[in-house]
Amino acid sequence: MEIGIERAHPARMYDYYLGGTTNFDADREAADAALAAFPTLRTTARESRAFLLRTVERLARSGIRQFVEIGSGIPVPGRNTHDVAQAVRDDARVVYVDNDPIVLTLAQALLTSGPHGSAAYLDADLRDPESIIEHPEFARTLDADEPVALLLVASLHFVADHRDPLAPLRRLTRRLPPGSRLVISHVTGDYDAQGWDRLVGAYADAGITVRPRGLAEVTALFDGWEIEAPGVVPVSRWHPTSGTPIDPALVSCYGAVARKN
User: Fold this and answer.
1) Which of 128, 192, 196, 256 has the fewest Cβ atoms within 10 angstroms?
2) What is the pLDDT of residues 136-165, one digit of tens each?
């Protein structure tokens, strides 16, 4: 499905929150309305992105060398999953997945692997898992017998309840070998229900569904997986690297890593 610049897109709104420049009038208008509804949304975006990079580095150091990032969004020069993974393991392999043609164009230009690893980009959709796992580039890039880290950072809250976010997750993960990891970050209204009600309304006005989920609901997304320490926690408190973690109420986003046994 082609997505034009006249309509706001979550990936480009996220880019705007992070201070990027690959966004357009519709994205900025929708993002500004969202920020008016929930003023610390930029903090949410920054902390979720930092969580992604910390998990990739830790997993690479633990021996994982294959990563699939679904809903990868606008590339950030020098600070993407393959950059971080290949700084630890130069043979790391990464598959990026998103469904915005503008993201595809930038990915092809910026997501360039080092000589010993690989990085591929799939124009595919989380709501159609087979479009990902049956894609020829998926099989060419990844070794099916080796553990994979499946990264769904700031993605699943765009899946409405009636679409059942667990359904695509199960289809994506059923073939992954033991030792694989599932990484999820997900926004929540647990700390500010009224603020998130306003934010959901702002996204709905832009034609985008957002479904914040509580702690029990996010934990349920890891059904059948062994959640690793420190559990499902605010992303700012998942193995912080320095300083005092940001107040979870300002972040309103849970994150965790789980292992397939």
Assistant:
1) 128
2) 999 999 999 999 999 999 999 999 999 999
Q: Where are the domains of the chain?
A: 10-259
Of 121-125, 174-178, 237-241, the one with minimum mean pLDDT is 121-125
How many Å apart are CA 222 and CA 227, to the nearest integer? 7
Peptide bond into 230 cis (omega under 30): yes
**Rounded (10°) angle between helices 41-61 and 10-17:** 100
Query: Tens digits of per-residue pLDDT, 45-55?
Result: 999 999 999 99
All residues at 6 or more sequence positions from 150 whose CB lies less than 8 Å from its CB, including other chains:
68, 70, 172, 173, 176, 180, 181, 182, 183
Q: In one letter, which amino acid is 91?
A: D
- The H-assigned helical ranges of 98-222 are 101-110, 129-133, 136-141, 166-173, 193-205, 215-220
pLDDT of residue 1: 44
Phi, psi of 153 (to 5 degrees): -100, 120
Query: What is d(CA 5, CA 3) in angstroms, rounded to the nearest whole number?
Result: 7
In this structure, the number of other CB atoms found within 10 A of the CB of residue 209 comes to 15
Architecture of domain 10-259: 3-Layer(aba) Sandwich (3.40)
User: Would you call 217 helix, strand, or coil by DSSP?
Assistant: helix
Distance of alpha carbon 207 from alpha carbon 149, whole angstroms: 31
Residues 6+ apart with CB under 8 A from 238: 51, 54, 55, 230, 255, 256, 257
**CA-CA distance, 29 to 183, in Å (whole number)?**
30
187 pLDDT above the threshold of 60:
yes
